[in-house]
Structure formats: C-alpha cells, structure tokens
Amino acid sequence: MKRILILSTGGTIASVKTKEGLTPKLGPEDIFVLAGVDRNIASVEFKEILNIDSSLMQPEDWELIAKEAFAGLQKYDGIVVTHGTDTLAYTASMLSFMLKNLEKPVVLTGAMIPAGMPESDAHRNLRDALLFASSNFGGVFVAFAGKIMKGCRTSKVSTVRVDAFDSINYPVVAYISDDGKLSFNVSPTELTGRPELDAKWDSPVFLLKLTPGIDPRIIGKLVEMGYRGLILECFGSGGLPYRKRDLLKEVEKVANTLPIILTTQVPYGIVDLREYEIGVRAMRAGAISAYDMTREACVTKLMWALGHSSDVEDIRRIVHMNVSGEISIPSEEA
Q: What is the pTM of this model?
C-alpha cells in the first residue's frame, strides 16, 4: 500500500457554516472522515499547513506549499494538497515550476461543496486525488470531477458546477470512473534531470485585461508603481490596439527594460503574433508571446522567471522554455 501525505490549506472543502458565511475550520483528518474516503486506498498521514479561504492565498504561501510537498516526497510515495478552488489553478501552476522533474505525483484537489454538507463533491475529488497520488505518474496535477489534469494547464471555468475546472490546450491526463477505475489518457513526461525544488520568485507582476478604449497611459503608471513585469490579456490571438489610443507605443517604450507578455482573453487557442499585422507590430515592439499558456501559468511563470533574472532577454528565454508542459511553441518559431 502506497504512503500518501495529505497537506491541507483550507478552502471550501474545509469550510463550515458560521454567522459570517462559509469559513475554513476543518483539519485534514476531519475532511477525510467527513468525506468518507476509503482508508484502504492508501496509507494516509495528515499535515495542516494553512487553513484559509484560497482568495487569501499569496505567493509566499506557494513557496511554503512547494517546500512542504518537496520535503514530503522524500518520505512518501505521493502528496495530496487540499485547496480552495478560487486560486487552485494559480497554486498548481506555480508548483509546476517550483517542483521540477518529479518522479512522484503531487495532486491538488478541493470541493465546490464543503466536506460536511450533503451532496458534497469532496468524497469524489479526494478519493480520485488519492488514487492518482498512488500511481507512478510524476508531476503536479489537479484532480477534479473525475478528471486528472496537468497542474500548469488547469483553469477554473465555473463558480457553480462541480465540474469546475478544464484542461486548457492540453489533453486530460487521466479519467477516473464513478467506481474508481483509473484510465490514463496520455503518457508520462520524460524527465530531464533529478527532482529539484526551485522556489525562487518575485511578485510585482500585473495582469491587465484590455478593453476597447483603454487609456495607454496605464502602462507607464504601472511601471511607476514598481511592477517588474506585465501580462496583457489581448484580443484574439494577440491584438494590441494602436489606433486613436496607442497602447502599442507605450509598450514599445518599456519593453526593453521590463518584460511584457501578451496572452489572450480567449480560454482556448494560441497567441500568434505572426498571423496579423497588428501582432507583428507588437512583436517588433518587444512583446513576449504567451503562445498557448493559461493566464494562471503566465502570471506564475513570470513571477518565477523574475526570481531568476531581471534581464528581459533572459526572462523571454525562461518564458519560452517548456518547464513542465505548460507551453507549446510552433516548430517554425522554436
């Protein structure tokens, strides 16, 4: 029987009703008992490292979770992290960069309905996380609603459905049936080195969603505020407006000294700066293409990259380096 460590961080799965609304109160063993998970799946031990609503999660907490998970992997066969759903995809993405070349699984999960409430999805999700954490499939993953997804490819897509997460621009890694049968959908990623904890990061990063009519001066204001990197959620495959209100000009002013990543507001698809004239202009201005990364991967990878370098070209290289399967670059551009 595999030995699995459950690290709890709070979230809906750990919440109980209070006068102030749902509040994380349950410890990891309480969650396990209330969820009614079969103890014969694995030999389980528990450790609470946080107990917060995941909207309160901060980059310092990602570093803590990464260090606890990496330490646990020295002793256990796999790690399960229970987490609130609101920022779970950000945590899963950052752990994918901080925990490199894993030979064992680290699986994040949570619930849309608290473990102690009727019709909770905590049982299904926690059971599935344990099943996959007991496999030999190394890396960082998310278990939710019968799907196992690569951590750096996962995004929350619903605030109401129990099937709240999708795998973006990447196949679901595995499916788990109602009766607990695990079916793999992709092959394990070939490791490029030994397992490594690389928890360096720097957080002054801003994600800006573009809208028609946006004032270009916002770029300069963000630089003045001390942000060290920007991610612009552009239109379509990387459209950066320059007519009447010239955002492109403002990007060009700072792109040589501050990394600016262009991602898309469309959940599925790729940023292709070579397809349209408007994208070519952005590329010439020095913008960095996110290609098919999720917004969560863009934000966390830029923070992680800034922890390793302040040079824009170094950061461009790191952003376009495939660390954990988070990015696919067309062969003609690689």
A: 0.97
